[in-house]
Amino acid sequence: MSPFLQKLQAAVRRNRSLVCVGLDPDPDRFPPAVRDAADPIFAFNRAIIEQTADAVCAYKLNLAFYEVAGPAGLEALERTVKAIPDDVPVIADAKRGDIDNTARMYARALFEYYRFDAATVNPYMGRDAVQPFLDYRDRGVFVLCLNSNPTAHDIQHLTVDGRPLYLRIAEMVNEWNAHGNCGLVVGATNAESLGGIRAIVPEMPLLIPGIGAQGGDLQTVVAHGTDRNGEGILVNASRSILYAAAADFATAARSAVITLRDEMNRLRSVR
Amino acid sequence: MSPFLQKLQAAVRRNRSLVCVGLDPDPDRFPPAVRDAADPIFAFNRAIIEQTADAVCAYKLNLAFYEVAGPAGLEALERTVKAIPDDVPVIADAKRGDIDNTARMYARALFEYYRFDAATVNPYMGRDAVQPFLDYRDRGVFVLCLNSNPTAHDIQHLTVDGRPLYLRIAEMVNEWNAHGNCGLVVGATNAESLGGIRAIVPEMPLLIPGIGAQGGDLQTVVAHGTDRNGEGILVNASRSILYAAAADFATAARSAVITLRDEMNRLRSVR
Q1: Tell me, what CATH number does A13's domain have?
Q2: I want to staple B149 with a disulfide (CB 3.0 to 4.6 A). Which of A32, A99, A122, A182 is the partner?
């Protein structure tokens, strides 16, 4: 098992959790006390991390929410990654994809500068664009496969050899997985898509956004997404956790994580 | 004609140039004098800009080369964009793509914070992921269509309805072009691909990397890529310009730009 998968599995079992919290800070929704902090984004994230680190299997940081604040946003990103306990995996949701020498720069930025444990990447340019990430054998690489946004069908569902493109992507990533450090990003949509992908990659971790503010069906995800151990999925929730309540936002976030975690554990028969 | 296309056309005609210089700084290749500057990336870029701004139609900054240096790299990015004369378009080669609320953040970062004139985006998630960029009617949006890297065929050449996927992408982007601010990224590969794409989008600007260090054939690009005015392509060159010579790198860059510009003008019969 690759080092990233080991770290992920240890967190899943220690915290009995398949919940990944998306740290996608939106300053417009911060409580007044946080807004007045010297570094509001970091202050917000730190409060969320302190309240949830023992109940999640991972954190995911979407880089757009940091880049929008310019270089200072990237400083908040850097501080946030450092504030997460070492035994909780941190995923850069960056969806990068570029030719090999450029992809190497992106991988170096995310894995060496910011020291993320894993990153999301876009497969549209083919294996070249992914390989520099895969070459970091101790990190995880989640390749976009199927998304849950309304227009994902524009391209991902196009028919290739009689089947939707996203299944071809799952097969390709399976072939790219020489170091055992690949995963897939799979939008929580329906049992058929999820089951079709899981059949192609029986042991790969699936990063599943689309629970909470984006809709989605927890029962379907657990029934059709988990691997034979009842693990292998990271269900990401962001807005439904971060903004669960305006007052005492951090403790409300903790409650929301635990509710989601326990509901998933009930569905997969884990106490 | 959309404001971005107007600005681009004005630069093309004023400087009689279809050359886009890729400002992709690699500190390992900087001359010693630049390495000792307070902000080496910015010092290098400024020297290149001063020597080439009257001979290019645009600059393209690949964000990976800045992100790899952390927040300080983004500060160099910010300073570089500001140092480019207002009448020369600046393209963020970011290849972003994410669901709509996230894409909005990426668009805001690139168009509002850094004030780029245009950006490259990835179409894999469909129209949702591109629309927030298109909504900036005064900016340009270059959608990845066909790339020149060895594994671009993994996905871009898959057969959909009897034709390669990249032609379907060109058709989609044509449909997305309600504000007239779309372009395509087309790797310089061969006459057939380029001509096939140009037939679908007769008036759209094509951003063409792959000249210089990446190989490619200038004559094919001019013959099959240009629009009916002998314009409509931005031929990007980066390493072959930036590192044309170790000594007097900036004047060597100028010479390399002018050689490329004049060769393209000869091929399209412009003096």
Answers
A1: 3.20.20.70
A2: A99
Express as a percent the part of chain B with pLDDT over 70.
98
* Cβ pair B113:A62 closer than 8 A: no
Q: What is the pLDDT of residues B148-179, one digit of tens each?
A: 888 989 999 999 999 999 999 999 999 999 99
Task: Tell me which residue in A108, A151, A214 faces B127 most closely, judged by beta carbons.
Answer: A151
Nearest CA in chain B to A147: B125
Query: Which among A122, A150, A153 has the least Cβ separation from residue B97?
Result: A122
Our count of domains for chain A comes to 1
Q: Is pLDDT of B11 > 80?
A: yes
CB-based contacts of B259: which residues, under 8 Å, 6+ apart?
none
pLDDT digits (tens, 9 = 90+) for A226-238: 999 999 999 999 9
pLDDT for the residue numbered A234: 97
Q: Does A138 touch chain B (CB under 8 A)?
A: no
Q: CB distance from B95 to chain A under 8 Å?
A: yes
Give the number of other Cβ atoms within 10 Å of residue A241's Cβ.
30
User: Measured between CB atoms, does A147 come within 8 Å of chain B?
Assistant: yes
Which of A60, A65, A74, A98 best probes binding to B when mutated, by most B CB atoms within 10 angstroms? A98
pLDDT at B213: 54
Q: State residue B214's pLDDT score.
A: 57
Between CA A171 and CA A183, with CA A177 as vertex, the angle to 5 degrees is 75
pLDDT tier at A215, thresholds 50, 70, 90: low
Distance from the Cα of B63 to chain A's closest Cα (Å) equals 9
> Using 50, 70 and 90 to split pLDDT, how confident is the model at A148?
confident
Active-site residue, selected from the candidate residues A7, A60, A82, A95 = A95
Domain range holding B140? 3-267
SS3 of residue B237 by DSSP:
strand
Q: Where are the beta strands (DSSP E) in chain B?
A: 19-22, 58-62, 90-96, 118-121, 140-146, 159-160, 163-164, 182-186, 206-208, 233-237
Please name the residues in contact with B232: beta carbons below 8 A apart, sequence gap of 6 or more. Answer: B203, B204, B205, B206, B225, B226
- Has B60 been annotated as catalytic? no
Query: Which residues, numbered 107 to 126 in chain A, qualify as contacts with chain B under a Cβ-Cβ cut-off of 8 Å?
Result: 108-109, 113-114, 122-126
The string of pLDDT tens digits covering residues A78-116 is 999 999 999 999 999 999 999 989 999 999 999 999 999
Say whether B174 sits in a helix, a strand or coil.
Answer: helix
User: Looking at the predicted complex, does its ipTM rise above 0.90?
Assistant: yes
Of B71, B78, B150, the CB nearest to A128: B150
DSSP A229-270: TS--EEEEE-HHHHTS-STTHHHHHHHHHHHHHHHHHHHTT-
